[in-house]
Amino acid sequence: MGRTVVGFTFGLILSACLGANLFPFKYYTLEAKTYDGKLLGPTSDQDLLLSMCSPGEADKAPCMVIFTSEFLRLKDAYKKCQVDLDASQRGIE
Question: Exposure of 50 by Cβ count < 10 A (0-12 exposed, 13-18 middle, 19+ buried)?
């Protein structure tokens, strides 16, 4: 019985996190004139070559772009979902 309640609660929270719109954040594929340069990571040792985003046979759009405002909305939604899930697992409302 207890596992059923936990499973049901987890399902409700997961549904609430996902919502009716599966991914409500705006993102775009990248199409550049040239793929020279770098993708700047949080630190310079995490930078990547922009050429990794060059379309190929297997993947026509290997890179996605998201604007900072959308990224911050996504990050906030993720944090809220994590907090809600943690509270649910602890039995806190």
Answer: middle
Structure tokens at 90: 């602890």
Please tell me the number of Cα atoms within 13 Å of 17 on its side-chain side: 20
Domain boundaries, the chain: 2-90
**Distance (Å, rounded) from C-alpha 13 to C-alpha 30?**
33
Give how far the C-alpha of residue 57 lies from the chain's centroid of Cα atoms, to the nearest Å.
25
Q: 30-71: per-residue pLDDT in tens?
A: 999 999 999 999 999 999 999 999 999 999 999 999 999 999
What is the β-pairing status of strands 48-49 and 28-29? unpaired
pTM over 0.70: no
Cβ–Cβ under 8 Å, residues 36 and 49:
no
Give the tokens for residue 12: 């409700």
